## 1
Amino acid sequence: MCRNSLRSSSFRRAGRRQRGIALITAVLITALIAIIAVTMASEQQLDIRRTGNILDRAQAWQFALGMETIARLALRKDAENNKTDHRMEEWNKPVQFPAPDGAEGDMIGGRIEDLQGRFNLNNLVDEKGNIDARQLQQFKRLLTQLDLAPGLAERVADWIDAGSTPHGLDGAEDDEYTRLDPSYRTGNTYLVSPSELLLMMTKEEFQKLAGFVAALPRGKKTKINVNTAPKEVLGSLEYLSSADVEQLLKQREQLEKQNSRGFDKIDEVLDLPAFQALRRQHRDFERYFKGCCDVASHFFLVSVFAQFDKGEITMRSVVERSAPGGGKPLRVSTLLRTQGDY
């Protein structure tokens, strides 16, 4: 009787333990399923949000491309209407408007800048890859006006030229750059973007210089547009004093305010009193000035910002507008497209 009672009690205790284990197991399985479900739901939300961001960015990119197309059409229309380029023209005015079907605050904005109002860094070398001494001196004068070391001009020229021997006291070739960490070598070819200057100078130096230089296509010597160039770029020209530049800028501003135009011909500049004096003083001044200055441009920088919901794009495009002639039609084409800085 006692044995049966003990055995029955043992069975009951064993049964209770098994039911306890089963209950704990069920709770653990339920908790595990809940954790998995929450994780899957969280990942799904992240995937949905990530996909939404990608779609928003893709939409913003399409808006940016559309704005670039509008800019190219504006430049084509301008060339069809006149043969000069100046700051009072429609293409030089920034535009901004709400993004189609976007939320409140979504917008598209853009502006066009004349890259021939800047110093073309690729003019530092000729078609054979040799340094152009006259262009090098002009670049040094520009650096001096910006309170930068003129020796930087030699570093940039060495980066572009075909030789491997440093030019001047401040030049630099592979021997200097390969000692850096990380090391690299000179390009020995034309620049694609002014941002490459960061390989040759500090960020602070680049920021002071960036708005005054361009890197236009290889093998194409470009002229400076006197209608759009800032004082610093005009002041880098040979023979010109600060007083000569001021007279040019004063006349340009007067034309803009009174007639909404710039100089129609380069001879208008040469007819200014200060420039007539330069023509008398320097036999080759007129030939030099006409050889490096113009009143029309062919290269432009299109800067676009587009925001659509959580997607934001900053795009910059270098656009070339070729002049018609020789049976060739007027063309406006994109040469370079980049996100971020030019």
## 2
Amino acid sequence: MQHLSISKLIIIFLGFSLCTSVSADEDWLSQYKRDIKQKAQNKKLPGLAFIMVEKGKTSHFAYYGKTDRHGTPINKETVFRLASVSKTFTAAFVAKEVEDATYSWENSLQDLLPDYKFDNYKDSPILLTHLVGQSTGFIPNAYDNLIEANYDLPRVLQHLEKLDSLCKPGICYTYQNTFFGVLEEYYKGKNTSFASEITDKILTPLKMPTASVGREGLESSTLWAKPHAAIDKNKWVSVKVKNNYYKYNPAAGINASAADMEIWLKAMLLDYPNIIDKDMIESLTEPRVRTKRELYRREWRKIIKDAHYGLGWRVYNVDDIEIIYHGGWVQGYRADIAFSPELGVGYAMLMNAESNLINELTADFWKQQIKAYKKNK
């Protein structure tokens, strides 16, 4: 038997170590997908879908659970409510309308709905950019309680007329749902609907196979995930779909599957420039108002250096990488979406349960993705 020299043994050892390191680095995503399922199982979640898109590469998916206790296993075509992730669609749609000169970002809400009077400052009217950019100046989540009490939309908008401002429009971050009713009423006044217009100009051109707007769109889907609420620790019960936030489709009315979210993430990464172009994305993701509270989010606070709101998107500085993010939450559902133009990577998580596990899973994904990116840079 031929004996190997010490130098050759060192070379072989180093080569083996290098291969092991590369393999381990490339395998973080496989481990992450296994962790998703294990953590979901530990929480006894009803169901979830995970999507990762990487520019120029095959997308990754992972699923867990069923549409309901006795339902169908979650798959690529299972439709979920997106809740406030809908605002990312609305922002792109409004940008498209601005591009088509339907209106301008500088149009005031008074221009759009002359019968309502929201302005508290004559020299600083509330503009469309303030509505989509969450900087109207009114107390955050103003009259969400009236939405949840199922008040009619015009009645809620009339209540908004009576509110005092915390700051002038465009100065401070003041997250809203009710103000998105302005867009709903605007299109109604044009003898159309927000649902019809965003379907015609965004969902259909992108050929999203199962995306829809409104409660009827969800419940008429071939396969949809039923909502679940917690009744005890790690114990979930199916609940009825609530109609209240569906009255505010621009804020929370979009439904989508993993297949749809794959397309949406690719659109954000400019794979469909004839529909959503670079200028639109740059405008929507420009940091506008600082969102200081985001710096203290559990699971995120150790890695976020700064946070702002753009137009329909949050803009995070995570370890000096810009992550564009939004979350959604309505009764029975949670959703997260995020992408990084620098990394060319997009992520989405859809759940048919109101579980805070989504915060851990999303933050962990970006920690690992950024770590792998910087290691291989």
